[in-house]
Amino acid sequence: MSIQKQDYFVRQSAIPEIGPSGLQRLQSAKIVVVGTGGVGSAAAYFLASLGTGQLTLIDQDIVEESNLHRFLGADRRDLHQPKAEVLQRKLGSRHPWTRTEAIVETLRTENCNELTTLPTSSPAPSRTRAIYPCSTLQQPRASNASCRPHGQRQPATTARP
Predict the structure, then answer these.
(1) Radius of gyration of the chain from its Cα atoms, rounded to whole angstroms
(2) Residue 83 and residue 63 in contact, taking contact as beta carbons nearer than 8 Å
(3) Can you tell me the distance from the alpha carbon of 38 to that of 120, in angstroms, rounded to the nearest whole number?
(4) pLDDT digits (tens, 9 = 90+) for 58-75
(5) Which of the four pLDDT bands, split at 50, 70 and 90, describes residue 3?
(6) Do the domain assignments include residue 155?
(7) Would you say residue 156 lies in a domain?
(8) How many CA atoms lie within 13 A of 69 on its CB side?
């Protein structure tokens, strides 16, 4: 059975504050998720569910046993595979209208030039390293993390040139 995009997003398009034009804006959005573990996989899943057009998933880590209960959609078959690639595969099968790209490496200044949003990064030292080079590009960003027994959230900021 083939699902049509219009049918898939019909309820979302019916919300007056979103409507067809808002859905179109979402589908043209490009968002980067840095860190695709527990928080990042959930953020990417819901961004794709909303109809985000393109997600770039950046993570240098692999799926380990201790990740399985937090990594949305991962199971034992995904063990020892790169987290970004596992999430790309899961999102591709569930959300066909969201293009995904997996980048299996650590975020560096060189790969910040196309960022529009940073929904998540963990652990905290990585988040600081991710936000700093991207802040020099005047890009809007948000940060959220869950590490050790503490959770952290940094509100979204809109950088203006």
Answers:
(1) 16
(2) yes
(3) 10
(4) 899 999 999 899 988 899
(5) confident
(6) no
(7) no
(8) 1
State the CATH number of the domain containing residue 116.
3.40.50.720
Report if residue 10 sits inside a domain.
Answer: no
CA 157, CA 51: separation in Å to the nearest integer?
A: 22
For residue 13, is it within any domain?
no
Determine contact, residues 55/33, Cβ cutoff 8 Å: yes
Which residue, chain included where needed, has tokens 């591709």? 92
Number of H helices, E strands in the chain: 6, 5
| Token duo for residue 87 | 């999430």
What pTM did the predictor assign? 0.73
DSSP 108-156: -GGG-TT-S------SHHHHHHHHHHHHTTT--EEEEEEETTEEEEEEE
